[in-house]
Amino acid sequence: MSQGIGVVGLYVRDQDEAIEFYVDKLEFRVHTDARNGDYRWLTVQHPGQPSFQLGLFAPQAPLLDAATVQTMRELVAKGAMPPLVLIVDDCRAAYDRMMTLGVEFTQEPIARYGAVDASFRDPSGNGWKMIQAR
């Protein structure tokens, strides 16, 4: 029997905006885009990790009440959620490519701890750390 984590969820303010960012700028691909009434299950995958999905979910009912939805949207927009980590072969080259696509970086590539890393945000405010593979 195979076990493990298959999907990690991320709150986004707009799922269509999130698809554009994650597919067009980070080169992920849509894995699942299914709707059930107002609820939308949307996941993307990095091409190099077919067994792992990143869920791009809107904070909404029925999982959250209205007050919590508003709080979560505010926290995400402030960048208060823990960052995700993207491993790349060449951090500086990925930074240059993503800058031309309009990705908002909060830290340019820096060499430290035996690697090179940079930080950026998605359109919802979620933080990402991009680290060059050793």
UniProtKB/TrEMBL annotation:
InterPro entries reported for this sequence: Glyas_Bleomycin-R_OHBP_Dase, Glyas_Fos-R_dOase_dom, VOC_core
Domain VOC residue range list: 4-133
Residue intervals passing through the bilayer: none
Keywords in alphabetical order: Dioxygenase, Lyase, Oxidoreductase
Superkingdom assignment: Bacteria
Pfam families: Glyoxalase
PROSITE patterns registered for this protein in UniProt: VOC
GO MF, one example: dioxygenase activity
Gene3D superfamilies: 2,3-Dihydroxybiphenyl 1,2-Dioxygenase, domain 1
Protein name: Catechol 2,3-dioxygenase-like lactoylglutathione lyase family enzyme
Organism ancestry: Bacteria, Pseudomonadati, Pseudomonadota, Betaproteobacteria, Nitrosomonadales
